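Homework help board

Subject: predicted structure for assignment chain

Our instructor gave us this sequence and asked us to write out the predicted structure in token form, then describe one feature. I got the tokens but I'm not sure how to describe them. Can anyone check?
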Amino acid sequence: MVDYTWDADKERENVWRRGIGFDEARTVLRGYLSFTWLDELHSDEEPRFKTIGYSDLGRILVVVTSEDGVQPRIISAWRASKRERDAYQRRR
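My token output:
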């Protein structure tokens, strides 16, 4: 299983802005019901991926990651919008 790293300052900002810590976000990345796709819009400088799925706390989250470098890292995470949740539910 891949282990993700992250910048502590970026996590603090994410918790302040979105209420989601990266420890919780990491649980989405190992979920067997999660879906991952390339975020083409934000992959100019490095390949970025979005993953949507349930966290261990039962929330549907979108998690942005990068696999550019030695160890993949979490960049951002948020609660899925209604549109994102509906699209996720249709895929399941």
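Reply (TA_rk): Your tokens look well-formed. For the description, you could write something like this. The radius of gyration is 12 Å. That's the kind of observation they're looking for.
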